[in-house]
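Ticket #4471: complex job returned nothing on first submit. Input attached below:
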Amino acid sequence: MLCWRETLAVSSFEKSQTTFSMSRVLNGIVAVCPNLGIGKDGNLPWHPIRLSNEFAHFRKMTATPSIAGRKNVVVMGRKTWFSIPEKNRPLKGRINIVLSREYKVPPAGAHYLASDFSSALTLVDTELAEQADQVWVIGGSSLYKELMESPGTRRLFVTQVLQQFDCDTFLPEIVPEKYQLLPEFPGVPKELQEENGIQYRFEVYENI
Ligand SMILES: NC(=O)c1ccc[n+]([C@@H]2O[C@H](COP(=O)([O-])OP(=O)(O)OC[C@H]3O[C@@H](n4cnc5c(N)ncnc54)[C@H](OP(=O)(O)O)[C@@H]3O)[C@@H](O)[C@H]2O)c1
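Support reply: We reran it on our side without changes. The output follows.
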């Protein structure tokens, strides 16, 4: 059992971790249909069509650290982890944190397990503080929601797919009162993209 002095130490430690997480820019990245659909049957809505250049954009954004010698962190829900083909797990060159309330150990191949979003951020700011650079939330629905509603600077890298597909998983609405579309962002092409007859556009939003 903790004595009051230890309790105090723990609570001020937790408070400082919350402050660190708030001061860190957190990024989300998602590809979305016009009706905000992001998934279908545990896969992407456009499966089996592949958007290879769109995937290359995801890889470039999430895997490129801004500080040499460090690695970016990808944070994802358990279903998103299993939606990644086994041969591509963990996402290479990145620290993979999987969230689950049920799992007691990370799923095979994942680097870390966290039982909630704030524990994942605390992990980044403590155990991973010396090696972690950018944090990227890569899905699914509830994690995007937590990211979008959390305090601090939040950026959303959104691929607007301009064609509708059947979806069963959705992105929460990007509320214009809270998020503004940036006119441009380094490394993000502005031109309309097209692959396999599907048009899409890269956008970056930041909270106001
Ligand atoms: N279009 C895109 O860019 C994109 C990106 C990502 C995913 N997707 C698609 O979206 C679908 C998967 O997303 P999803 O929303 O269904 O599921 P998900 O968020 O990836 O996974 C849900 C599970 O993650 C765990 N989890 C989520 N939030 C948590 C939290 N705050 N704390 C602790 N654990 C948490 C829980 O696992 P337990 O049940 O184990 O407790 C929960 O059941 C797939 O179809 C995938 O292809 C699309």
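The CA atoms of residues 7 and 13 lie 10 Å apart. Closing as resolved unless it happens again.
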